[in-house]
Structure formats: structure tokens, C-alpha cells
Amino acid sequence: MSAIRKNLCSHITEDVAGKLKSAGIKTVVDFVRMDMEHIAQETTIPYKDLVVIRRLLLAQFSTFPVNCADFYQTAIASSSIIPTPVNKLNELLEGGLYSSEITEVAGEISSGKTQFCLSCCVSAVSTAKQNIVYIDTCGGFSADRLAGIAEVQYGEEQLEHILQSVKVVEAHDIFQLMSALETVKENMIKKDDPFYDLVKLIIVDSVTAVIYPSLGGQQMDGHGLMVQLSLKIKRLAADFSLAVLIVNNVTGDGKVSLGKTWSHVPHNRLLLSLARDQKPNVREVVLVKSSKSATGGKIMLEITEKGTEDIK
Q: Which residues of 89-110 are buried (b: 16+ CB within 10 A; e: fewer)?
């Protein structure tokens, strides 16, 4: 809470601030909590002046109640659920990717994580009518593959629209990634670019590629950068009601990369892996963390020329 100081409000002069501090009233909270008559006796400040100061400070620093109906309408207007291309996965996630939430998909190399992200791009544009910012940190993004998924599903008439609705940004280290996120924030605030008026999904493929190198050498510096990045992503998602899809890796021993600290960042975590005793293009998805759903649920999906989809 703000400290009592000169010009904190129009009636707090240097003399008034000094008298209040001498009486042990150092913050706005101290002032508001104490009885006005007691303060007048302790400081010799006129009672009527104290009442005016109290009213001004309450107006400046208090939060105001919000009508529940208005709050609900604001929440509905700013919230959205972006369906994934896999219907069974949408059921597992209770609709899909929620705005203001971070969903992480983790898996070993070649498990289909990027294929899933590209399919989510097509689904977000065609179904939810939203634009996507795709931040590529490891060179895995393929415009040809994205175009192939879009064309097979929706034909050439929708191809150009889907491609124009995905903005790809390259970020080769953690600093470039944070800079890319800051650029998204600035564009969302300025509203100069109409593209960002429809942005509801940010994809980061992947965080492991930029965070893991920074954890080597100066461990404390790397850990601090990871925490800073996680806060930036969370604030961006919350402040602008964006859904964030993040790709992470799984190590050879089956553990998700980046450790315990990072595990608290995503609201939802999906493990993507090769399905045993299934065709080579079939994957198993397990929900291992969720802010709203029961964990442990699993589904099967298939990687085809249409991207990731339900098994026929």
C-alpha cells in the first residue's frame, strides 16, 4: 500500500504528512483504519480536513464493486474455447483450448507434437474463426504441411484464407521468444494491425529449445529467465484472454523436460506418445494435469494427410 507522503492527495501538504508520520501513521491503510477523532487529537490536524483526506484516499485507492450481471457479460465476451482437430480430445478437455489458459503438449521426438500444432492452426481458423501467432523456436514449422492439411480438409478456396490467418515468428533463444511475446502484447494494445483483432491462440513450438540451453552454466540465471518467461506468458494469456498452446519434450526416462518449476506453469498438460500395438501413425494422448478436468483420461488419435484426427 502507498506510503503517506506530500501531494499523495491535494490536502496532504508536507506539514500534514509530517504530523501523520509523527503519530505513527505511515501508510494509507494506517490512516483509513484509525479513528478520525483520535488522529485529530494526536496530530492537531482539523477534523474536517481529515474527513476530506480520508474521502480522497478511499476514492483513489479503493476497489469498487461490480454488478454480477455486468461481470458475467464481460467474462462471456472475452472468453472463448478453441476446439482441437480431435473430437475425443475436445471431450477430454471439456471443449478444447480455453482462453486465459496455457495448455502444454509434451512428447518425445517424432511423437507428432508439431503435427498437432499445425492441425490446431487449421481448426482454429476454420472452426473458431480466429487468427494464430505461431512462434517457431526450432525450425519445425512447415508452411507446406500446413497448406497440405488445409487443402485436404477445405479445398483450395479456403487455403489462402487459412494461410493468411497464421503469423509465423522465429525465435532462436529465450530472449527472442520474450521479445516476440512483447511484440504480440504491444500489437494487442495498439490495435493498429487488424490481424491482432482476431488473435485468440498463441502457439510456442517449443519452449524446450530455448529454455534448456539457458539452464546450463549459470544455473541461477537460467532459472530466473525461465520464471520470467513463464510470468510473461501467463500475463499475456490472462490480460488479453488468449489461449496458449506450448510444446515441451519428454526425456528418455519418460519425464517431461524443464523440471518441477516449469510444471506449475501450464494449466493443462497432455502427454503424446506412440501407441503400443497400434499402427505407426496412431498416438496415445493422456491428460496428466488439468485445472478443471479429472486427470488420467486418455484417447487415441491418428496422424494422416488431414493432420491429427480421431481414429476412423
A: bbebbeebbbbbbbbbbbbbee
CB atoms within 10 A of CB 243: 26
Cα–Cα dist 271/249, whole Å: 9
Q: Where are the alpha helices (DSSP H) in the chain?
A: 14-22, 28-33, 36-43, 47-61, 68-78, 87-92, 113-126, 143-154, 156-164, 174-190, 208-214, 219-239, 259-263
- Contact between residue 130 and residue 201 where contact means Cβ atoms under 8 Å apart: yes
Q: How far apart are alpha carbons 218 and 216 in whole angstroms? A: 6
Burial class (CB in 10 A: 0-12, 13-18, 19+), 2: exposed
Pairing of strands 131-136, 166-170: parallel
Q: How far apart are CA 67 and CA 4, in angstroms?
A: 32
Phi then psi for residue 308, to 5 deg, are -95, 135
End-to-end Cα spacing for the chain: 59
Using N-to-C axis directions, what is the helix angle for 143-154 and 156-164, rounded to 10°?
A: 140
Q: Is the separation of the CB atoms in 286 and 271 below 8 Å?
A: yes
CB-neighbour burial class of residue 306 (10 A; exposed 0-12, middle 13-18, buried 19+): middle
pLDDT computed for residue 219 by the predictor: 52
Q: Is the pLDDT of residue 168 over 90?
A: yes
Q: Are 312 and 302 in contact (CB under 8 A)?
A: yes
Angle at Cα 151 formed by Cα 147 and Cα 155, nearest 5°? 150
> pLDDT tens digits for 172-219?
999 999 999 999 999 999 989 999 999 999 999 999 999 877 765 455
